[in-house]
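Listing S7. Sequence submitted for prediction.
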Amino acid sequence: MPRTPRCRLGATFLSAGLALAFLVGWAMAMLPKAVADEVPPTAPFAAVQYGTNGCIEVGARDTQPKPYAASDDYDPADHAYPDFGYDPASLGFTRTSGTNSCRYNFRDSTGTTVIGSAYCVEWGAGQRTGTGYDPEPAGGIRNAGYVQRILENYWPATNEPAVPSTSAKAANRERSGTVAMAIHYFTDGIVLPPDYQSAALYEVVKKIVTDVLAAGPAPAPADPTPTIEGPDGGDTGTLIGPYTIGANATGPLTVTVDNATAYTDAAGTQPFTSGETLAPGAQLWLRSDTPGAARIMVTGPVTAPLGTRMDGDPAYKVQSMTTTGSLPLQGKSARTIDIAAADPPRLASEVSATTLTAGQPVTDTFAVSGLTGPATLAITLFGPLPAVNDSCSTVDWSGTPPVARRYAPVALTGSGRTTTPEQTIDEPGCYSFGATLDPAVGDDVSHAPGDPLETFLARPRYVPPVLSVTTRASAAKVQVGGSVRDRITVTGLPDGRTLTATVSLYGPLTPAADGTCTGLDWSAPGIPVAKRLPPLVIRSNSTYATGLVTLDKPGCYSFDAEATHDALTGGEVPVGHGLGLPAETVLVTAAPSPSPSPTPKPSPTPDPRPSLPDTGDDRPLGALAVAAFCCLALGVLLVAGQRRWTNGHRRA
């Protein structure tokens, strides 16, 4: 197991690497060979990003710990990967949103056939399946050399790293996800949570970073776009060239020339029609009688090498990616040629990006024309100055602006183009390049800061808020025939982003022995589906409710909301929320039976006795005799009483 580099050893490696990078950059700047300009992605695109090819979850669920983002001044190339269980506060890390860490598929320009895969190099950028991408020249990726080393030494270029799983499908997920997280450490300063759910996978990521830091950065890949090699400028009325077109191409190239007449011979007798094709390596010469900027644009097939930066359609905010292998792609390139009247020397330049994020590198390319002898070019990067309304257009560069870097002077022997070494921008704000050309004969030519082509805005690195999806059923217990719905609460969804929740109701399962739904296994295969509800498309943070579902069978039910989103890389992978959780579980009981009506009891049947003959009465004879006796006695009493009353009145 390789040892983690000590701080002193890491600093020594870093110093040596920076010195070597500076010397290589100086030597490259002095070469007469020139390369094509970077062309932003444009339709028709070379490839389409479509789907994933292996992911691990990194805080994608609400129940999982969230990753952390290092501060802007924390350069991962200078620091070993933190140990499992690290203290984020002591390192100045900020908790950020979780997602899936993935490797992505690329399809051909028609979007039908998978041609390769790539890893994301921007954690905070969105992801959108079906977006067109174009290859771009090397540069613009933070710690690009370390990322290139990962791509060359790990999955899928090799079978590294070793992962816990043995099945091919699970091992692909773990390799793809851990390699992606190692890349995000170098490009974005993103670190797995200190209490990540898999300590084994945490150690896999840490080992990748440790080994890559020890190996050092790898060289940049070859240009994945058609090369255009030739002089940076010339004088009006003269043939300027030759320009060698697409020597690295694999097939015919479509070439467009603006603001100049093109020829296919050095004598200028064989005109070339703009928009026609040329074979790889063909040459052109240009002529213009008017001062200005001529432009050569080339489109054609090139084999883009492993590590090619792929940029998405600028109409969408999507992640940039870097390829895991060589791909046959249609590349686009352009060259601007400065055509001017002779005398004096002219100095023009253009910054590599007008906006970037703190922590990303920047370069500036200076084109010197009309120089007939030796000269020295002194370049200075000024800034930062505060932006005005998130723009540098009205910033005042007069006076004495702060200096971010003074570059070593560049010795020139004639007209040509030179590019500064990459400079990582750590502080947000407005920056601008300035330069002074000091020819051996003649006056200095100054290029003051503030020119829009020389100025760029560095924005703070975006740390996405924690995206949270919580779900709760509308009732925990209902009777058969009752209705329930699911409620979904979303927080942390950035403006302009969309989350789609697809809710299903699973069940019924037989309740547990105690009559509740506690402890049931909702992960078993073949769980019945009671209802699949229409997807909810969510564009703001709030609570949303599904339609009602009527439950006609007793048992245990549970909602599950599968969520996808375009807020972060990996968000297109569905993640379930709630299945089996108490808040999403519903117990359906049978309706109580109605109370039974009392059953009338029959009167006891009297013992049979002989009826009085011919009377129709079945009462006993004894009862009739008693009644007759009572009537006779009453009569005797009435008669006696009458006699006493009569005698009394007579005496009176």
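Caption to Listing S7: primary sequence and predicted structure tokens for the chain studied. The radius of gyration is 43 Å. The CA atoms of residues 6 and 524 lie 48 Å apart.
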